[in-house]
Every structure is written in C-alpha cells, then in structure tokens.
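Progress narrative, work stream C.
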Amino acid sequence: MVRLMASFCCIVLALAGCAPGQSGGPTVFAAASLRPAMEEIGAAWEARGNEAPVFSFASSSALARQIEQGAPADVFVSADSRWTDFLLAQGSVDSGNFRVVARNDLVLAVPAGAQDTAPDLAGEIARGGLVTGDPATVPLGAYAAEALANLGIADPRGVIAIPAENARAALVLLERGEAERGILYASDVASSDAVEVAYPIPSAMHSPIEYTAVIVPVSGHPQAQAFFDFLASPSAQAIFAKHHLKVP
C-alpha cells in the first residue's frame, strides 16, 4: 500500500510538472502574421539563458476566444487591439501590462512578375478575385473591409473571392496562384519572393494596424513578465524591423 501511494504521488508530481504554461518557457499566443519575427525573438530570448517559449500562432480572434475559454496562454500578441480590448472587458488580461510592440501596413499584392494590372488601386480592386483575411473573424480582413468601404465597396463579399483563416494563409494562397490579387500585410509581402506589391493602401483608409501585447494574469508563469518586457527591448525591436514591421 505504501509503495502504491508513493507511486501515485510520483505520478501526480510528474503531471503537475508538465502543466501547460508552467514547465518550460512561457506560452505565447501570437497573430499568425508575426510568426517569422516571433520565432526569431524566441530564439534570441533562449540564447540569453531563458527557457524556450512555446508559441501558438493563429488569427487573433481565434486566439482571443481560446484565452476567454481558459486556454493556458501566458502572453498574447494581437494584430488588432479590438481583441485585446475584448479580453480586457472580460477580465482575461492585465490592463496594467499592455503595450504596442509593432505596427504594419496594408498593400494590394499580386504574383511576382504579373504584367496585367489596372492603372490605379481602385481599378485593380474592382476586378475582384481578392484573397485576404475573412472580414468576419480575421484582423487582416477587417482592415481590408475598412479600406474597401473607403473605396466605395460597401459589401466586401463582392470582391473577396477567398476569405482566408489568417494572414499567413492568405499569403500562401496568393503565392500558390489560387488568387490573382490580395490585400495583405506589407510585412508578409516583403518576406516572400513569390508575390509583390502592386499598390500600397493608404493608412488613412483603415484603422491603425498595431500589434498589442498583454499578459494573461491567470497563467502565473514566472517568466511571463520578463518575456513581455523583452518584446519591447532593443533586441526584439530590431528583429521586428528586420521582418519588415514598423516599431513604435
């Protein structure tokens, strides 16, 4: 009986040691468009003697909903402050630990080497067949819908042929030639040899694209605050800039 109890205690301790968000580095939920930059930032963080962060990348809306439902995130980096505001209203993130770590722009992109483009932004968008994020659920799509509305297109469904599940998925679809044009983040287009900018989309046509980092206080991870602070460090900011993101 004593041996059985001892074995049981060892199992419990082992499971406790494997609890998400507590063993290893902090669990970081981040917008899909940040993946290349965040993975390099994670490597820089680990190189300083810290435990490697565990990343989860998806649309900011999907990640926010997971956090609302109790997913074990320690830090959340959203591509749209509306989703951090949503979590603040739910009491799911810490209003005292909230900062903009990077910014982005929108562009109208086409496959590299495309010859047949309209003479202006409005004309190219009017052709339709766009790929971008799903306006109902993905920040990229919401920004795109705002830009379309400012171009006189009230119903984005008329020109968006493929509403992608996140920004990186939209980039991949355009790279594969599954669409002829797309509204994408400038950083994603700059990272790819398969697509190019046809027209920049003026920032006045949409809400500011700001990546907002927050701490999820329920996690209690001992390195959450340190990683959150590291995102604003000169080293991390240089990595964001390297990946064609604007820094505050």
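Work stream C, second folded protein:
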Amino acid sequence: MVTIPLDWRLLPVLVSAGLGGCYYQHLASGQLALLQAREPIAQVVARAETDPVLKARLLRVQAARQWAVGALGLPDNGSYTDYAALDRPFVVWNVFATPPDSLAPVEACFLMVGCLAYQGFYTRDKAEARAADLGRQGLDVHVGGVPAYSTLGWFDDPVISTMLRWDDGHLIGTVFHELAHQQLHIRDDTAFNESYAQFVEQEGLRQYLRDHPLDYDAAAESRRAQFVKQVLAAREQLEILYAQPLTREAKLAGKAAVFSQLRADYRQLRDGEWKGYAGYDAWFDDPQLNNAKLLPFGLYDAWVPAFAALFEQEGRDWSRFHAAVKRLSKLPSAERKAEIEALLPSS
C-alpha cells in the first residue's frame, strides 16, 4: 500500500465529555494518550542515551519547521516542537466508504469541524470492526493507516515516531502539510482542505530542497506521481460511468473493467519504464481494490493543479497566495468549486 499522508480532524475530543458515547470516548482517550506521550524535542536531543540518528532527524525537522514559518508563511506555534514515541505502526487508522456504484464518500459528521470523508480510530481492530459493519451494509470500504494527522491548532501536534518511516524529505513535507491545515481549514470540504495542504507540501518541499540537501528519493516521488496519475485517470473513468443512465448491474460490470484495466496499466508501467520496480504490487494485489480505496486520491490530489495555478497567478508570493485561498474559502460551496475548477489546466 502506498503511504499517503492522510489527516484526521480531531476537534470533537474537545466536546467528547458532553457528547458521550463509545466513539467519542475512544477519540478522547486516544488523543489524551498522544498528548501524554509528548516530550519537548530539546529534551530528547539533550539526553545522552538518545539515538544519534533520531537526534539528527528531529533537529532537521525543527530547522525545517522554523524555515517554513518565514519562507512559506505558515503558523509559528508549538506544533512539531515535541516528540511522541508510540508502540504501533500508525497513529490512527482511517475508514473510507462509498456506495458500490458511486465515488461519493459516506461522511462522518462532527460538531465544530463539520463532515469528513472518512472516520478515524486509534486502534486497527476498531477501524476494521467499523469497516466490517459498513461492508455488511453493502458499501465499498477501505482501511488505511495514518502516520500523522492535524488537530488544526487546537493542540500542539508532535512529531510522532510513526512519521519516521519516511525519508527526511517526506517527513519535512508532511510537517509543511500539517501546518497548512492549521493555516486554513473550512467545514465540510475535505477535497479543498487536502488539496490546498498537499500543494503547500509539494511546492514548499521543492523550495526547501533547493538550499537544503536531504535524504530524499526523487525517483520514488516520480514513481508516486505516475501512480497517482493512473489512479486519478481510473477515478475519472468511474465518475463518467456512474453518471450514465445505466442499470446498477451495468455500472458494476463497467467498474470491474475499469479496475482490470488499471491493474494492466500498472503492470505495463512496472515492467517497462520502472524496470521491474514492484513497490506498488501489494496495493494492486489487494482484493478490496474498490471505490473506497480510490477515494483518498481524489481528496488529496484532484485540485492540486488548481492551487498551483493560483500560486503562479499570485506571483509565487506565499502571503498573496494564502490570502487568495482564504478568499476562496469564504465563498459558498458551489461558487468555490466553480472558481477552483476554472483554475485547472485545460488539459
């Protein structure tokens, strides 16, 4: 499975005590445990027994965070000045669900933060139990592990041990992504929020790498971009298919053909241009390759080119860009979507 930095808005923990219920108790206890695991990075690197590799990586993150405040206009707060070591591979697991003949997400709605296109859990077993329940309702489901998330500035988010699976470039890019969520987040528009943060991550990292050599696998990032392009093309085919006045059976047959072609296109890329690189085999071999598994890509990548165009339109000036995004965020949903789509390259 490709590692994609997914984010989970955890504001409901602030009101969980009043709302009650098992799920909100789960959120509250999970967030509390993460907060309790935090330790100032300055203390971690000062201890003689701390692994020198960990020290070096945390110091690089600190330097990059401070650079992003000045160069990218991102928030200067206590986020990513702490470190939290966890004994699990992901901090949360997100559950995505769609109808079998639609790419519309089954949303989870909360007070204050609005509706999200996924639902998060601090343990894999709870996420899989929720996915099984949604599956019994006849929905397409997907469970994805999340190494990092943002609390939108309500808490000082730490660097988490689960984030250290990445090389330094991906790690630092994720910090830029999460700080962008603290810069701007709007209710009920996951695609807008994620595409904006994804653009800040990508462009911010490109600028940072010009003057800061890092452990960064450019070839891996190029492969990921090609992989995402194939997935988004399949999504577009499915959207066209599902919009047609066809029977449900015909749509499902067409869906199977699209996924079969996606697998074939991947094998051609893997065995040709990638010279046998098989890092994405597990993603395609998953028997649950379905609408829900494609959902995160539409949320995180679909409007990145529009934000890139807006950045150019604003003279590649970050303060002007953030102001323009804020203006867009205040528009009614339909108007906002129309303006963003107008920014997309005609191709």
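Residues 102 and 243 are 9 Å apart (CA to CA). No further action is required on this item.
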